[in-house]
Write a structure and sequence with these properties.
The protein has about 260 residues and is mostly helical. It is built from 15 helices and no strands. α2 crosses α3, α3 packs across α5 and α9 crosses α11. The longest helix has 21 residues. About 10% of the residues have low confidence.
Length: about 260
């Protein structure tokens, strides 16, 4: 945390008012850290400090007036939340999402239980497509999974939920939202599918970005084993089959290493 960033946050905190000291300190830490991880927010750069204050409130579990904080970001709402989502992801600030509370907030309480069941079913189906090691590393703690499950159930039941407001509220960018929504509709078609017919299994396997990404990842241990196996194969081939040469006597190459004395 730099002294300059602490001063910026303190000045902002005076305008926002009612911010605890722990929030101010955490926001200053986030501001300094964010400059190293996300060097330029583009049009959202003026809102960096305000976004860090909002993330600090989430990290410290402090309830704050987010609309008031956003107004001090000095950019339009869409730009602010886009920058907030980038910072949230880069700083690793995960917002706890309670599906029931979210349903209350958006006036769809009766759909909360179905959303929770859909999320559980999605996790089960998603893990089936992964290897044992990938299953252990799969992370469903990101807010996007709960948010998308709730949204898709609401849409299926023709409830009016503002998608943009929902995504912005939990700092989710459009690309990530669309990616998870597509995956969830495929794997939980009977619950949240909207097309007349379910896509063929082959097409889902080919186009599902999330599953494909997990399958494509290689563990360092696996890569090392593959390299070792390849080396062993080449060595065996070399010892089993001599390479023909022109008949000339080959000179022995002297390696530049000193002999170790016993």
């Amino acid at each position: 945390m730099s002294v300059e960033d602490k001063q910026i946050i303190e000045a902002l905190a005076k305008r926002i008012e009612d911010l605890a000291e722990e929030v101010v300190t955490q926001a200053a830490v986030f501001l300094t850290e964010s400059r190293n991880k996300v060097r330029d927010l583009g049009k959202g750069e003026p809102s960096r400090a305000a976004a860090c204050v909002q993330l600090a409130c989430d990290a410290c579990g402090v309830v704050a007036d987010k609309k008031k904080i956003r107004r001090h970001g000095c950019v339009d709402e869409k730009t602010y939340y886009r920058g907030l989502a980038r910072l949230q992801k880069s700083l690793g600030v995960l917002q706890d999402v309670d599906v029931t509370e979210m349903a209350k907030k958006f006036g769809c309480v009766r759909h909360s239980k179905v959303a929770i069941r859909t999320l559980d079913a999605y996790k089960t189906q998603f893990l089936k497509g992964l290897g044992t090691r990938d299953q252990q590393s799969a992370n469903f703690n990101r807010p996007v999974f709960s948010v998308v499950a709730f949204y898709l159930v609401a849409v299926k039941n023709r409830a009016k939920v503002d998608r943009q407001e929902l995504a912005q509220c939990y700092g989710i960018d459009e690309v990530e939202f669309d990616e998870v929504a597509k995956s969830m509709r495929d794997l939980c078609y009977n619950t949240v599918g909207i097309s007349k017919t379910k896509r063929p299994a082959e097409e889902i396997k080919t186009n599902n970005t999330l599953l494909g990404r997990h399958r494509a990842q290689k563990r360092p241990l696996e890569e090392t084993t593959e390299k070792k196996d390849s080396f062993e194969t080449l060595r065996e081939m070399g010892s089993a089959k001599q390479i023909p040469h022109s008949g000339k006597r080959l000179k022995q190459m002297t390696l530049p290493f000193k002999k170790l004395e016993k």
